[in-house]
Amino acid sequence: MRLVAVLVIVCSSACAGQGRPPAGPPLKTAAVPALGPAEAVALAPKVRSLRPEPATVTLHVGQIVDFSTLTIIVVDSAGKDRGQLLGYDFSIKPGEAAEAVPRKITGKRPGETDLVIHYPRSAWKSRIDPRAEAKIHIVVKP
Questions:
Q1: Which of 44, 97, 131, 134 is a plausible cystine mate for 140, CB 3.0–4.6 Å?
Q2: Exposed e or buried b for every residue in 18-28, given b needs 16+ CB within 10 A?
Q3: Phi-psi group of 33: left, alpha or beta (phi > 0 → left; psi -120 to 50 → alpha; rest → beta)
């Protein structure tokens, strides 16, 4: 009888955590090469999109999150991850809940906004279409 009770307790505690996201920092994708300026220029003709990881950053008023915690993955026209952009252009509209200077996100007031990441202008010169971009949703809590 004791064995049955132990199995039920083990199963219930193992099953209870299912469906919840894992604790800790977001998982990153498989390793992709870092793309410096020369690689970004060479890859520009093949770029379809950018994928940020994480897609959402949550912080508190006054908290600072360094851009080194962000990963911007370049996806080519075939849908293949080609590398991680080391340099990119970025912006947050003035007066929003957070600001992004210099290469850090700072929570200014409670609210939500988007950090817009653009493929570097200096690497996009071979193309006339709008640069690839991605948005990272920023949530600032009190």
A1: 97
A2: eeeeeeeeeee
A3: beta
**CATH dotted code for 30-141:** 2.60.40.1080
Domain residue ranges in the chain = 30-141
Name the residue type at position 6. Answer: V
Q: Which of 37, 35, 100 is closest to 65 using CA atoms?
A: 100
Q: Which residues contact 77 (CB under 8 A, 6 or more apart)?
A: 46, 47, 48
Count of all residues that appear for the chain in the document: 142
pLDDT tens track for 100-126: 988 999 999 999 999 999 999 999 999
How many CB atoms lie under 10 A from the CB of residue 90?
Answer: 18
Contacts of 45 (CB under 8 A, 6+ apart): 126, 127
Q: What is the pLDDT of residues 78-98, one digit of tens each?
A: 999 999 999 999 999 999 999
DSSP symbol at 20: S
Position 65: which residue type?
V
Quickly list H helices, 17-55: 37-43
